[in-house]
Amino acid sequence: MASTLDTPVLIAGGGPTGLTLAYILASNGINCILAERNPSTTRFPKMDITNGASMELLRRLGVDEQLREVGVGPQHSFDVIFAPDLNGPEIARWQLPSVEEERAWLHDNRDGTHPAQPWQRVSQEVFERVMMERCHSDPHIDVRQGWRLDECAEVDGVVWATLADGDGEEMSVRADYLVGCDGASSRVRSELGIAMTGFPAFTTFALVHFRSSDLANLHAMGQFWHLFFSTGTTVIAQDEVNTWTLHVNLGPDVVSDDPIGDPIEFVQRALGRAVQIDDILASSVWGPTALLADGYGRGRIMLAGDAVHTMIPTGGYGMNTGLGDAFNLGWKLSAAVQEWGGQRLLDSYEAERRPVGERNRDASVENAGVHLQYHYMAGDDLLTADTEEAAAHRTGIAEFLGANDGENISLGVELDIRYDDSPVVCAPDTEAPPWNRRTYAPSVRAGHRAPNVVVGADRTLFDGFGPGFTLVDACRHPEAKRLIDEAALVGMPLHHLIVEDPHCRALYQNQLVLVRPDLHVAWSGNTVTDAEVIIRRVRGVS
After folding, report:
1. pLDDT at position 2, please?
2. DSSP annotation of 203
3. Do residues 428 and 446 make contact, with C-beta atoms less than 8 angstroms apart?
4. Which residues of 162-196 are buried (b: 16+ CB within 10 A; e: fewer)?
5. In this structure, is the dihedral angle defined by the CA atoms of residues 382, 387, 393 and 399, taken in order, positive or negative?
6. Which segments of the chain have a pLDDT < 70?
7. Helix axes 388-403, 343-378, angle to 10 degrees
8. 186 to 159, 270, 347: CA distances (angstroms)
9. Residue-wise over 55-83: b if at least 16 C-beta within 10 A, else e?
């Protein structure tokens, strides 16, 4: 007979979203079981950019500096090069700053229009390894690697699940809540009967993850983060030392059972040069999809990450959106388990996050369209010819790419996430500013992300926030105590942060601003008309 384990939260899937969610719960003192079907973390690089907004969230968990230590060094640029192949010529370059350059800029520009943390290049295989080690060492997390979820159902307010390992051993889990973070082929989503809609795979890519120290050839056009060939080939510098990933577009119809063959020859053929390959780390064939789940869960069973949204990698939105899911859901589950949060809090998860998943999915498709147009424009012999006509042709392509460089410059996508209509956000009394994909206008309007700025050496405004809610007091408001007392009465964690810096006080409009653990504004105002109504609303009590 299978053994039975009891837990407040069962997480199925130990990718970036599941690992982060488990660590958020543990940081709030919540016990959970993390079941991952694979016995080890991924060998494939997958995502390679953690954006500034995600780094701000990860800083709240105290993992940001470790990720920077194991990620790409801060001196390296994020440049993206477009060329026919390694032999050139360079057609266009998106010049994107290094972590060092971005940190210096943020120190000198404190207008709140950017995240106060630079982005970080760190491969998913490295990210997972760091987070898995942390989860294993946390006493609140029962990590079960090599265990897959086979069945799950909610019965009379309790979630029952069956886990199985590779040897056929089974165990039952009785949980208050289950979160499926088990990827695009989610078993949890399948058990709930929730469909995915959107854009299925429109082509097939071959991936080869390899090591090479041959910078003389690989950096023939200079250091880069991504190198896009006109043929549909992409080269990604994973660590700026010797680790790379090659993606080759094979087209929609792949007839060969083994389109890669000898991976070393495949890489050299795709690069156009006899690059010295030191080691092949992994290879596979995959198809990009952009899909969104029809629902983000049902009852006490919820879904997050790739289980509810898959995105074309262009823009790096996939994992970053999944981290946003984890931080949104993590504090709400903690509140439910600790019994200071109401049912409306968990109901708000889908209402808040599904529109974000849809918008980011569509943005990834828009970014992919730029690359398809580039390949269409560049796919002829004129690209490399030494004629005036060819030079003009290359100039036209460069101008097109220069006018469509929003893939990695999308502050609206990254920061301007709005939960205006959420059932656990107090209704804002001002009109929302226009949304712009490329730019972010800081606002303390309820539902919007709270602004952040650098306030000192290696310190930002968010560093003064508490682990739960934070009441940002930008005016030493005499009515702040009403909210503080009401939160204490119901056990809602609330930190009172008095802001003295005149720049930050102006940014927070000299108001009281109640900020949630996921850094979104729950309420803001100049006067506290009814503290009980405000606190009941933001903790999801009807």
Report:
1. 64
2. S
3. yes
4. ebbbeeeeebebebbbbbbbbbeebbbbebbebeb
5. positive
6. 1-2
7. 170
8. 17, 33, 21
9. bbbbbbbebbeebbeebbeeebbbbbbbb
Q: Express each pLDDT in 219-277 by its tens digit.
A: 999 999 999 999 899 999 999 999 999 999 999 888 788 999 999 999 999 999 899 99
Supply 257's token pair: 């059972």
CA distances from 76 to 73, 166, 257 (A): 6, 42, 38
Alpha carbon distance 312, 530 (integer Å): 46
Quote the mean pLDDT of the chain.
95
Host H or E run for residue 489: helix 480-490
**∠ CA(234), CA(240), CA(242), 5° rounding?**
85
How far apart, in Å, do the first and last CA atoms of the chain sit?
42
Coil, strand, or helix at residue 191? helix
**Structure letter (DSSP) for residue 308:** T
Nearest to 243 by CA among 280, 205, 272, 286: 280
Give tens-digit pLDDT for 327-345: 999 999 999 999 999 999 9
Say whether the peptide bond before residue 355 is cis (omega within 30 degrees of 0): no
Nearest to 310 by CA among 31, 46, 127, 10: 46
Contact 471, 480 (CB under 8 A): yes
Query: Which amino acid makes up residue 199?
Result: F
Alpha helices in 138-283 (DSSP H): 187-192, 215-218, 263-271
Helices (H), 252-403: 263-271, 317-337, 343-378, 388-403
Give the residue from 376, 379, 364, 373 showing the smallest Cα distance to 403: 373
Task: Check: CB of residue 198 under 8 Å from CB of residue 290.
Answer: yes
CA dist 147 → 83, 166, 439, 485, 542 (Å): 45, 7, 43, 45, 38
C-alpha distances in angstroms, 374 versus 96, 251, 253?
19, 16, 21
**Distance (Å, whole) CA 42 – CA 15:** 8
